[in-house]
Specification:
mainly alpha; 8 helices; globular; transmembrane; ER-Golgi transport
């Protein structure tokens, strides 16, 4: 494992922890898209179905379990424990428009026609757009809490670090996975506008507000 993937993994884990702490400490999930978290739960479930059938390393297995448990716990907080604070009126993105195209694309472009491989490919495509409901929610409300901005920034950095990981692997191992690369680039591009606002506003101590 190279440093870019390691940092990417911990950036992803950091994003999840930031979101959990935000919800738990404020006792509120206001400003958080439950639909985005739901999509990530689908992503991790489909991707890690091989958890008990294909052992890679202890680190790999532990991280998979952490991602699954923390994501489903976040869903529990949003839809059960603090559901009174969940802003359904602004979390209105039609996620079927993300799930169905990802499923069709997984059937058309994959590495192997097996159930686990197609589900893994589906998870890669779906993850590339899973943040859209959260970004859409921010666009509808016109602003995001600072802690929510940190969560989104950590997710974006995770994907950027994984692009560096793929570049590193190409030059050191002569390995490239075009499915992961294309999906990762798409996801990173989705963050570009947010990154600009984060750097110019949030890092200067201002609340992230979208231009009218």
């Amino acid at each position: 494992m190279n440093i870019f993937r390691l940092l990417g993994d911990f950036s992803h884990l950091g994003a999840i922890i930031i979101l959990l702490l935000k919800i738990w400490k404020t006792r509120s999930c206001a400003g958080v898209s439950g639909k985005s978290v739901l999509l990530y739960a689908v992503v991790f479930t489909c991707r890690y179905l091989d958890l008990f059938t294909h052992f890679v390393s202890l680190y790999n297995s532990v991280m998979k379990i952490i991602y699954l448990v923390s994501t489903y716990f976040t869903l529990f907080l949003i839809y059960r424990k603090f559901k009174a604070t969940y802003d359904r009126n602004h979390d209105t993105f039609r996620i079927e428009f993300l799930i169905l195209p990802s499923a069709v694309l997984a059937l058309l472009w994959n590495h192997e026609y097996s159930v686990l491989e197609i589900l893994w490919t589906f998870s890669i495509y779906l993850e590339s757009v899973a943040v859209l409901p959260q970004l859409f929610m921010v666009s509808k409300t016109g602003e995001a809490e600072t802690i929510t901005s940190h969560y989104l920034f950590a997710l974006g950095i995770y994907r950027f670090l994984y692009i560096l990981n793929w570049i590193y692997r190409y030059y050191t191992e002569n390995f490239i996975d075009w499915i992961s690369v294309v999906a990762g680039v798409v996801q990173t591009v989705l963050y570009c506008d947010f990154f600009y606002l984060y750097i110019t506003k949030v890092l200067k101590g201002k609340k992230l507000s979208l231009p009218a």
